[in-house]
Write a structure and sequence with these properties.
By secondary structure, this protein is an alpha/beta fold. The chain has one domain: Rossmann fold (3-Layer(aba) Sandwich). About 45% of the residues lie in helices and about 20% in strands. It has a seven-stranded mixed beta sheet with strand order 3-2-1-4-5-7-6, sandwiched between helices. α3 runs parallel beside α4. The longest helix has 16 residues. The radius of gyration is 17 Å and the shape is globular.
Length: about 220
């Protein structure tokens, strides 16, 4: 099996099962036009995030890593009346593109885009009493994955869902001697998931248009 076949299957799933949405398509086009890297989640993965929001009956979502707002739109679009989503983006140019995409989708009254390093903003959110969040999606620099997860745990409560994307890294996550900070950061996340008694977690390997990767899924089983 090849990435070409995985991509074809993803496209088939998107066409037949997921369907299209003008706001999401416009977000991808605007992001590409602005030169953003094409590292957004695939449509079927975006739909999975939306389904997790709905299954959890989430009213509050925290996203770490906005990029062009594609995954933001998926999650914010299924929040109930009065719901809110806070998304953190380190790159001001990316944040500007995301704000435009989110506004075009009619979700700017729901979404709060915060600009700056996540490890600077997360303590600010805690100080503001912004949590607890019902769901957290982490899709940012992989070297800090364990730190992001620790903050996610602090800003959630019993029953909250935490998702961390890109945690298989083409299988290289098993390379203990890797010099890649992203691999080492992800391995620290794995260790935390295995040791932390306040969560029940697993990791699912995936293949598709984004290659061979996977995501971690955790449910918070106790309050902070």
């Amino acid at each position: 099996m090849s990435e070409e076949r995985w991509t074809a299957v993803d496209r088939y799933i998107a066409d037949v099962v997921v369907g299209s949405d003008p706001a999401l398509e416009a977000a991808l086009e605007a992001s590409a036009g602005a030169g953003l890297p094409p590292i957004n989640v695939a449509p079927n993965q975006g739909k999975l995030l939306a389904l997790l929001v709905q299954v959890r009956a989430a009213r509050t979502v925290l996203e770490i890593g906005t990029l062009g707002g594609y995954s933001t739109i998926w999650m914010a679009g299924v929040l109930p009346a009065g719901g809110r989503l806070v998304t953190l983006e380190a790159d001001p140019a990316h944040a500007d593109v995301a704000r435009g995409n989110i506004a075009r989708a009619g979700l700017d009254h729901i979404v709060d885009v915060r600009v700056g390093p996540a490890l600077t903003i997360l303590p600010q959110l805690a100080a503001e009493g912004a949590g607890p969040f019902d769901m957290v999606f982490v899709d940012a620099d992989k070297a800090a994955n364990a730190d992001y997860f620790s903050w996610a745990l602090r800003l959630t409560r019993r029953g909250s869902v935490i998702v961390v994307d890109n945690v298989v890294r083409g299988g290289t996550v098993v390379d203990a001697d890797s010099a890649d900070p992203g691999i080492q950061g992800t391995r620290r996340l794995y260790e935390l998931l295995g040791q932390e008694r306040r969560v029940s977690a697993t990791v699912v390997q995936t293949v598709g248009s984004k290659g061979y990767d996977g995501f971690a899924l955790a449910v918070v089983t106790d309050d902070p």
